[in-house]
Amino acid sequence: MQRIEIIRSSYYDSVTLMLVAKELNKLAGVTSSSLVMGTEANYNILASGGFDVEGLDATPNDLIIAVMGEDSSILENALKTAKEYIASPPWKKEASAGDYRPKSLDGALAVQKDSNIAVISVAGRYAGDLAMDCIDKGLNVMLFSDNVPLEKEIDLKRAASEKGLLVMGPDCGTVIIRGKALGFANACPVGPVGIVAAAGTGLQEVHVQLARRGVGTLHGIGTGGRDVKTEVGGITTLAAVEALLSDDEIGTLVVVGKPPAKEVEDKILDLVKRSGKPSVFGFIGGQARCDEPPVYICSELEETACVAAALAKGEDPVTARIELKAKEERLKKKAEEIGLRKGYIRGLFSGGTLCYEAQLVLAKHGIDTWSNAPFSKEKKLENSLRPTAHSIIDYGEDEFTQGRLHPMMDLTFRCERFLTEASDPEVSVILFDVVLGYGCNPDPASLIAEAVTASRVKSGGRIAYVASICGFDNDPQDFEKQKKILEDAGVIVCESNAQASVLAAFLLAR
C-alpha cells in the first residue's frame, strides 16, 4: 500500500528531508519512503520507485511525502511521524545559553567584521539576490547553490568584477583557500600548486592525484560550470587565473574542467603564455592540443595532475606521461584476467566532470555513449531514468538535485539504480565513482557495497563492477578502509577515474 501527501508552499532543506526519510524507513512495516520537493525530476524518480504519481499537482514549492507499507495504519503513523520530525527534528542540538548564532548577513558581519568571503547554500531562487547583497558588502562569494538563472549569474559576476571580487559558482561545490577546504574537498597537503576549475569533482580529482604524487595545493578556485561558456565569457576564470599567476607562492598553475568556448580558452591561454609561469591545461575535450612549454595541454584529469606534479618537482613531464601510458597496457592484461563481457556499460556517477571524462575516455576506445550530460548534443538521453545502450549518467545534474540532496551526500537513489541496471540483461559492466572528503557521506563504500551485493544476486553474477575512489589517506572516511569495503564486495577499484574508464572499455569483448 502507499500514501502520498502534499504540503503546500513549504520548502525544506535537502539534509532535513534525507534524515526524515531515513527515520521513516526504520519504522516497522514501512518498505519505502521519500520526501522531495515537487519538481518534474522528482515526479519521475517517485514513479521509478513504484509510487503512483498520476494526478499529483505538487509544484517545486511544495513538499511531497510518499510512503509505502504493509497497511493503512502504518502509513498513517509514518505520515504523522514525518510531519513531527519536519516541525521539530529530534537530531537538532539545542544551542547553549552562551551561544549566539546570527540569523542574517548583517548579524554575521557584526560578529566577524574582517570576513571577506561568504558561502551561500540556499534554494536557487533566493541565492542570487543574497549573493548580490554579499557583493554590495564587499564579500567574495562561494555560491554552492545550483538552479540559479544564467542571467543572474552574469549580473553577479559583472558586479563582482567591478569591485575586484570573485563569484565562485553557481553550483560551486569545492573551494580551497590556503589549503583550507570549503564545501566538498579532500584532506590533502598544502603546496605550490594553484588550481582553477569549475569546482566539483574535476578539482577534487586533480587535487587528490597531486597529493598521491607528493605535491600539495595552496588554492583551488571554483568558477561554476557555465563560467567558461560564451554567455558568461569566463569572468571568474580569467580573474582567478590572473590572481594565481601573480601570486609568488604559486609555482605551478592548473586550469581544469569541461571544454570552454574557444574565445574564452584563447583568452586564458594568452594570459598564461604571457606570464611565463609553468601551467597545465586540463580542459577535458578542449580545443588546444599541443604543448608550448612551459604551458602543457592534457586531455584527462590524472594526466593533468601527473604533468603538474612533474613540473612542481622539477621533473620531466614527458617521462611522467610515458609512465602513465604504461599503466594502460597493464589494464588491458587485467581485463583479460577478470574475463571479458558481452553487453553494455552503464555509468552511475555523482561527479559531473568525472562523468564527462568517462564518456571521452570510452569514446577514445571506440565506445559511443549516451548521457544526460553528453559531450555531444545528439547523444543526450530523452529520459535519464531510461538509459539505452552504453549510457553514462550524472546524478549530480540539476534535474536530480532540485529539492534533493546531492548524491555525494545522499547515496540512496544512486544505490537503487544499481538494482535497476542489474535488471537489464544487456548490462555487463557498471562503472562508477566514489567521492570522499569533507561534506561527503561518512561511509559511502558500505552503502554502495550493499547495493553491489544485492544487484550481483539479481544479475546472476554477469556484471563487472569497476570504480575509482576520489579520496586521499587523510580524508575523514579513511581511504584504505573504503577501498577494502568495495573490494570485499567484488568491486574492481582503479587508481583514477580515467583508468577505471579504460578498464571498463577493455572489459567489453568487441
Tell me what the structure shows:
The chain is an alpha/beta fold and 510 residues long. It folds into three domains: 2-87, Ribosomal protein S6/Translation elongation factor EF1B (Alpha-Beta Plaits); 105-321, Succinyl-CoA synthetase domains (Rossmann fold); 324-506, Succinyl-CoA synthetase domains (Rossmann fold). Helices cover 40% and strands 19% of the residues. The protein has 17 helices and 19 strands. It has helices spanning 14-25, 40-48, 72-87, 105-111, 124-136, 150-162, 201-212, 235-245, 262-275, 301-312, 317-338, 352-364, 398-401, 412-422, 444-459, 479-488, 497-506, and strands at 2-7, 30-37, 63-69, 117-120, 140-143, 167-168, 174-177, 180-183, 193-197, 217-222, 252-257, 279-283, 295-297, 344-349, 370-371, 391-394, 427-435, 464-470, 492-494. The strands form five sheets. It has a six-stranded parallel beta sheet, sandwiched between helices. Strand 5 (140-143), helix 6 and strand 6 (167-168) form a beta-alpha-beta unit. Helix 1 packs antiparallel against helix 3 (72-87), helix 14 packs parallel to helix 15 and helix 15 runs parallel beside helix 16. The longest helix has 22 residues, at 317-338. The protein is globular and about 70 Å long. The model has no long low-confidence stretch (mean pLDDT 92).
